[in-house]
From TrEMBL:
Residues 13-129, 159-263 form the Rhodanese domain. This is Thiosulfate sulfurtransferase. Coiled coil: none annotated. Residues 125-148 are annotated as: Disordered. Keywords: Repeat, Transferase. GO terms for molecular function: thiosulfate-cyanide sulfurtransferase activity.
Length: 264
């Protein structure tokens, strides 16, 4: 399953690990990047607006062909181990990894750097050399099942004693309007301000437990446009949560459909 990996782990791996930097091109080129990292900017794998309807509701992943092209140009194959990073505590990189999972990349081959570019460069080498990449012919194989759920399943989760519906936005946003029955867990509460990575696991589990988010429940995640839930999704999978549902349409779709909101 998609997991967090340390800087040591990344440094110790050979050329078989594809390192993906999802920052903007100016940051990658101008500020330097991790050795051997390729640049796949966040904007390149995110549709501008919610796209075609699917069974799981509207979302913002790219077209399948565009995704395959991006990965091909990055020298990635379906067998590649990938580690992704950004400079925002991993939230943009997590979106890359979730997109890869939704398009069928083996989740066991998907890793999020624990920390980000800022924390890496405090202790480790960076480079401004762009690696030579051998393009591949990446082919998407859609998985048999995905964690995606649509709005009806989200509405049902609120009434299901075995499920916890989780809003991963900030408390002001939650207070202004959230899906009825949702608990609040700001995704940043799982981030260690000092390391810019995941809190130590016992602390992360306590934060989650305080919000009622425990492994024997089905967890259903939403935010505004499925960026912040990507980070929480990776955290929960890393911590061994087995049932984590991902509402790709999130509040953008929920509100567009005129569904109810609760305020505090
Ligand atoms: O992170 S977000 O999708 O809520 S803007």
């Amino acid at each position: 399953m998609t997991d967090f990996v340390s800087a040591e782990w990344v440094s110790s791996r050979g050329d078989d690990l594809r390192v993906v930097d999802v920052r903007d091109a100016w940051e990658y080129d101008g500020l330097g990047h991790l050795p051997s990292a390729v640049n796949v900017p966040f904007d390149s794998f995110r549709a501008d607006e919610h796209g075609a309807e699917s069974d799981a509701g509207e979302g913002m992943p790219p077209d399948e062909d565009d995704w395959a092209k991006l990965l091909s140009e990055a020298g990635i194959t379906p067998e590649s181990d990938i580690v992704a990073y950004d400079d925002h505590h991993g939230v943009f990189a997590a979106r890359f990894l979730v997109t890869a999972e939704l398009f069928g990349h083996d989740p066991d081959r998907l890793h999020l750097l624990d920390g980000d570019f800022s924390s890496w460069q405090l202790e480790r080498e960076t480079t401004s050399e762009t690696p030579t990449v051998e393009p591949t012919n990446y082919e998407v194989t859609r998985p048999d099942s995905t964690p995606l759920v649509g709005p009806d399943a989200v509405a049902d989760a609120a009434d299901d004693p075995d499920a916890v519906l989780v809003d991963t936005r900030e408390d002001e946003e939650y207070d202004a309007g959230h899906i009825p029955g949702a608990v609040l867990l700001d995704w940043r509460d799982l981030v260690d301000d000092e390391t810019r990575g995941l809190l130590p696991q016992d602390e992360a589990r306590s934060v989650l437990e305080r919000a009622g988010i425990v492994p024997d429940k089905r967890i259903v995640l939403y935010c505004n446009t499925a960026r912040r839930i990507s980070h929480t999704y990776v955290v929960l999978r890393h911590l061994g949560f087995e049932q984590v549902d991902f509402y790709e349409g999130s509040l953008t779709e929920w509100e567009a459909q005129g569904r109810p909101l609760e305020t505090n």
